[in-house]
Amino acid sequence: MFCEKAMELIRELQRSNEGQLPAFNEDGLRQVLQEMESLYEQNQTDVNEAKSDGRSELIPSIKLRHCCLLRNQRCLSAYLYDRLLRIRALRWEYGSVLPANVRFHMCAEEVQWFSHYKKSLASFMRSLGGGEGLDITQDMKPPKSLYIQVRCLKDHGELEIDDGTVILLKKNSQHFLPRWKCEQLIRQGVLEHVMS
Amino acid sequence: MRDFLSGQSAASPGWDSWRSRVTRTTSRRVQRWSFLCGCQKGLYEKKRRVLSVELPKVYREGWRTVFNADPNVVDLHKMGPYYYGLGSQMLHFDSPENPEIAQTLLQTFIGRFRRNMDSSQNAYNEDTSALVERLDCLEKALFSSGQSGLNSFQSWEKGRASQLTASSLVLNYRKRKINDLQP
Q: Which residue windows are coiled coil (chain B) (predicted)?
């Protein structure tokens, strides 16, 4: 039946966990585009026949193929758009540098889109606060204190703070650090916020 | 993605049983086909009589009586995971039973809503599969937003609202990575 391949793409996205980006299904996409091409060609032949021979009984099948074409187009747009929304969320959760296993699941156009999005966001953030700039990816929850107690969940090497002090982030070590330095690392799961 | 699916009454694992049946009339013979709802809408024209649409049984008189009697007893997941979405789309096909179908859809939702809301707001930190298994997809979405509201409120009550946490996306990716590595 028509539009099955397109539905498969959508089902694939629905099956993946909330927010996760599955690998880009280039094969599936190509199959849907091929189906659309063949539907369109069949329709072209039928339209010419209907016009020249006056065969009006071809019209319902032309309409059916046209509906299937529109349906396939809509499914593909939804598939690509939903993936872009997930990629956009990754910028806010992971930061500007995505891990290799995530980038592996993106196609070349999506990688390009991501870097454009990063640039737009960065230039927007720089323009805030009267030209001074404001990092809006920080302080996603209202802060209660300037400094927080954190515990290291895995070895992450050295971290330099604004006053020049260098902290060694070794697994299970605890530190008292400025909030703005730790927020990104906590979100990435390197540090853990310890509430006293 | 969920909105797209319910809006067009499209894919789900149980979808194949939910394509509404269509009767194509020609001067020579009548053929019964099974189409996607969106394609039927494009083909359906009252004047030309190309297609007539057969209502799925869950929207017919028999089942409507059940829904009007007590909507809470019905397993809406089994009867079509997109009961409300597909029902709203079926209204497009000018059936003489449209007012009754619309009324039943509305009353079913109203009748079930209270119980779903209460269970989503009171099931804290426990297994909700028994509560969720008989719900339609729209109800499941409402249930999960109720649960997330409940969890946020509880964490605020415990003073954990200001605690910074790792992003759930990051944690899920890490779990997957470990699963990929394991043989």
A: none
